[in-house]
């Protein structure tokens, strides 16, 4: 009888850690690792690194505005819009600057100190954030020769590194800009 009890205790003591290790391995296999890779969108004139493939859609049915939406960790939603309309870059950026600088939209107050001029892949632009300290929205605009790019992201707290990773990976590609 002692032998049977010792055998059962031995199996329990040795088997439990092995079962936990096996369970941990299965959990690790189930959690997908994000595979960031570059994607090229020649019709909209850009390439960007993303955590998953996206399919552009027309914004509000407007075939001149293509929206690329990426869902990131922590509930962050990142959008990139490519607007195919001829516009005067200087005037458009100046109008956007004046609107953000006047800070008259009570629904989306511009956070003081976030309005700034930026450049990305040779494109002039501007950037600002709206919201409060715990919930923010990024608004970034870049003007190309034939395409206007609008970057936006909604997130809680500090801007996620993945948002910056996407923005910093953006590159203009031809032929859309020719």
Mean pLDDT: 84
Classified in CATH, the superfamily of the largest domain is: Mog1/PsbP, alpha/beta/alpha sandwich
Q: Find the CATH topology of the largest domain.
A: Protein Transport Mog1p, Chain A
Query: What is the CATH first-level class name of the largest domain?
Result: Alpha Beta
Uncertain residue ranges: 4-13, 15-21
Radius of gyration (CA) equals 24 Å
Find the count of extended strands (DSSP E, 2+ residues). 10
Q: Percent range for helical residues?
A: 25-40%
Give the H and E element order. HEEEEEHEEEEHE
Task: Return the CATH architecture of the largest domain.
Answer: 3-Layer(aba) Sandwich
Describe the protein in words.
With 178 residues, this protein is of the alpha+beta class. The protein folds into two domains: 1-31; 37-172, Protein Transport Mog1p, Chain A (3-Layer(aba) Sandwich), CATH 3.40.1000.10. The chain is 29% helix and 36% strand. The chain has helices at residues 2-30, 89-102, 161-169; strands spanning 37-41, 46-50, 57-59, 62-71, 77-83, 116-120, 123-131, 135-143, 148-156, 171-172. It has a seven-stranded antiparallel β-sheet with strand order 3-4-5-9-8-7-6, with helices on both faces. A hairpin with a 4-residue loop joins strand 1 (37-41) and strand 2. Mean pLDDT is 84; it is low at 4-13 and 15-21.
